[in-house]
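Aim 2 progress update. The chain analyzed this quarter is reproduced below.
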Amino acid sequence: MEKWTKVTSRRGEGYDEYKIQPARDPDAFPKPDWPSRTLSELIEASFESRLIDSVDHPAMRRLLGRRQTS
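Predicted structure tokens:
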């Protein structure tokens, strides 16, 4: 979170690692505008109403072949 960095997989070269290259000029790009929310908060907001959180969830009821509740 301190500087712009390019990360490239080396799997094509037969290595299970990444090549890490910082930007040549530290002022090449503007400073990042990081979100104020935590990663957990961002994930929760992204998946809100999209998680199966109980056996009574409509998607789970369909998968189990159960009648939908109204």
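Helices lie at 39-46, 58-63. Residues 4 and 41 are 24 Å apart (CA to CA). These observations will guide the mutagenesis experiments scheduled for the next reporting period.
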